[in-house]
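Quick start: read one record
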Amino acid sequence: MPLHSDRALFELLCLEGAQAGLSWWTILRKRRGYRRAFARFNIKKVASFKARSVETLVKNPEIVRHKLKIQSVISNARAILKIQREFGSLDAFLWQFVANKPIQSRLKRTSGVNTRSRESDAMSAALRSAGLSFVGTTICYAFMQAAGLVNDHSPYCFRWREVRALALLRT
């Protein structure tokens, strides 16, 4: 479903980065712990975390205790504050890659689902240029699916029509 809340978009971007190399199920089981550990993904609060916070978080069994992934959430929050100042919101920055309208996939079955696109390549490059990490093109494409920037639901899925209708409303 299309998301337009900076907090929700930040959360999904962080969770997609945490998922790199792991199963999505692992991250979903730890989502509540991530919310507690990272101030419910309040961007300003996370950006204010200090080095001591990283050392505490590395010991937290409720999240993936990968130091680089933890540090990336904090440094990404700081970079997102700059993006918000420049673009007005994280939402405006991210949705520009799909011309502010979800891309409607034409997939007939799940075996042909993409793992990247021109748009995810551009988003990844722009995010990295802005100073974010754990935002490779495959992570960005998965994020785009989760945040509703891409509708990869099969036309046979019960959500396909609903998500497509939302895209048509934004035109």
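The chain is about 60% helix and 0% strand.
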